[in-house]
């Protein structure tokens, strides 16, 4: 009886303790920072073609499920009219909510920010650069390849005020990237 109790308790300790320590080190948790970068495409409406759009971001986790993310992005969608491209710099600040599903973490995001937009033709700026306000919302998923490294996919719609531009800079961004937790 005593030997059986020792064997059962030893088995519980051997199998439970590594799992408990893994659970404590899982990311994300409150106070965690993450940095990352994405590459993708940005498609702003019917007047344009998809343009390359890289971004970088810094994220701070308020809890394991809620984070604040600051992001800087760049896009250069091409056009078929008098304007060759619409160069766009984006600075946004978002709230991100994620759900844990083992290695997969789906998430939704919403926020707003500033957009610097410049039309170009023949490699030359056309008119002044416009500073416009906008908001965005999207969804995506992260895959934990390592305890502190994820690969992510995200699709986000950016609504940007048109201002005095000839066409709306609003559009859909789709990207893949990598994220590192600290």
> How large is the radius of gyration?
22 Å
How large is the share of residues in beta strands? over 45%
**SS elements, strand count:** 10
Dominant shape? elongated
Q: What is the count of distinct domains?
A: 1
Poorly predicted regions are 14-24
> Which percent bin holds the helix content?
10-25%
Find the structural class using helix and strand composition.
mainly beta
User: Helical element count?
Assistant: 1
Strand order of the largest sheet: 1-3-4-6-7-8-9-10
CATH architecture descriptor name:
Beta Barrel
Q: Specify the biggest β-sheet.
A: 8 strands, antiparallel, barrel
Terminal residue distance = 47 Å
What do the pLDDT scores average to? 85
Determine the CATH topology. Answer: Porin
CATH class: Mainly Beta
What sequence of helices (H) and strands (E) makes up the elements?
Answer: HEEEEEEEEEE
Explain what this protein looks like in three dimensions.
The chain has 182 residues and is mainly β. The protein has one domain: Porin (Beta Barrel). It is 13% helix and 63% strand. It contains one helix and ten strands. The chain is elongated. The relative contact order is 0.19.
List the helices and strands and how they pair.
Elements: H1 2-25, E1 33-43, E2 48-49, E3 51-61, E4 66-75, E5 78-79, E6 85-98, E7 104-121, E8 124-146, E9 149-160, E10 171-181
Antiparallel strand pairs: 1-3, 1-10, 2-5, 3-4, 4-6, 6-7, 7-8, 8-9, 9-10
């Amino acid at each position: 009886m005593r030997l059986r109790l020792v064997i059962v308790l030893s088995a519980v300790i051997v199998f439970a303790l590594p799992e408990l320590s893994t659970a404590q080190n899982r990311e994300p948790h409150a106070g965690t920072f993450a940095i990352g970068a994405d590459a993708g495409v940005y498609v702003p409406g019917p007047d344009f073609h998809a343009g390359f759009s890289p971004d970088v971001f810094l994220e701070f986790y308020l809890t394991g499920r809620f984070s604040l993310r600051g992001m800087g992005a760049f896009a250069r969608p091409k056009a078929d009219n008098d304007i060759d491209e619409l160069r766009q710099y984006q600075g946004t600040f978002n709230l991100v909510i994620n759900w844990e599903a083992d290695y997969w973490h789906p998430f939704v995001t919403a926020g707003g920010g500033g957009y610097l937009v410049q039309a170009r033709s023949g490699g030359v700026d056309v008119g002044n650069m416009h500073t416009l306000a906008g908001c965005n919302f999207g969804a995506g998923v992260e895959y934990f390849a390592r305890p502190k490294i994820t690969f992510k996919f995200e699709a986000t719609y950016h609504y940007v005020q048109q201002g005095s531009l000839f066409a709306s800079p609003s559009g859909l961004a789709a990207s893949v990237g990598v994220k590192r937790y600290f």
